[in-house]
User: What shape does this take?
Amino acid sequence: MNEKIWLSSPHMSGNEQFYIKEAFDSNWVAPLGPNVNGFETDIQKYLDNNIEVAALSSGTAALHLALILLGVEKDDEVLCQSKTFSASANPIVYQGATPIFVDSESDTWNICPEQLEYAIKDRISRGKKPKAIIAVHLYGMPYKVNKIREIANRFEIPIIEDSAEAFGSSFNNIKCGTFGDLSILSFNGNKIITTSGGGALVAKSKEVKDKAVFLSTQARDNAPHYQHSEIGYNYRMSNIVAGIGRGQMTVLDSHVSKRRNNYEFYKDVFKNCEEIVFLEEPDGFFSNRWLTCILLPNYKMREEIRLTLEKDNIESRPLWKPMHSQPVFKDAPSYLNGVSDDLFERGLCLPSGSNLTEPQLERVVSAINDYFATC
Ligand SMILES: *Cc1c(COP(=O)(O)O)cnc(C)c1O
Assistant: This one.
């Protein structure tokens, strides 16, 4: 059997263990310490000096806290991009609120501005104004930042920007992770940088960051004994994990350029293959190309290619199955235009890690070429 080629695997820089050793040597083996503060500062410097970062145990935890900070409660409604990973939507349910799913547009695959506006008006006419909009930069491609912001401002609904897949992406030279009223990042094992597991909440003010840290550390009041006036969570990042993050920050931009090279490589190799369509960057959009995704003419071909790759021990994956089609969300109201279902039928994510070698990329290409030669 050929060696396994993964869709997106962890890629260490070699600098991580320095920070971990430092944590052990100074006995900062806890969910606070110099690496946590250092990692937050590194992210802040990378994104924008005017924002504030709270390092947390996961991107999902960051989304949950974002909803809490925006006051989302039982029976509220929250608009959410349907085409995404389930972690974007699950925290809405943690709060006892109802997700309202909104379909995608075909040029970015992200939340469709027209459907979003229609959904907001319809929810208001039914008697409830949505409490927040969760917009996602899927596979690293920014959503239509200006249009979504204009709609959100017009209806006075805050945006939670899910930038879990888009660390290193930007729109008009402004980094993704800074566009939401609150934004989130993820450092899970398959993301563009990883801390093994982890996430961050990005806020616009020190007050909001401090509140997030307070909630993430069990909401302890300022008293010598343990006193609580609010429900807290155990969502803070550990100082060991943050050490990995500090090492990973030294290679974030190089990971972005390697992943963008993967995309360019695939696109160039298949430039004469009419059956394979790539997602292009509209003007002003800069994707980290977390995953290179292709569209095939139909479901049958998509599956055949996926199985051809699997036979050669190469991992590929259909695009995210939209939330409105997930059994667990079957009763959620949805505003649909057919785009995300079509993408799910025809789309495939190709191996895209920043640690892929040229021979590995060649193997992926030759498996796909073999498929086309024989069909
Ligand atoms: C990975 C991911 C998350 C969740 O992040 P975790 O750190 O795994 O909890 C949320 N949204 C999207 C779009 C993701 O891809």
Q: What stands out?
A: The pocket of pyridoxal-5'-phosphate is lined by residues 58-60, 84-85, 87-88, 136, 162, 164-165, 186, 188, 199 (CB under 6 Å). The two ends are 24 Å apart (CA to CA).
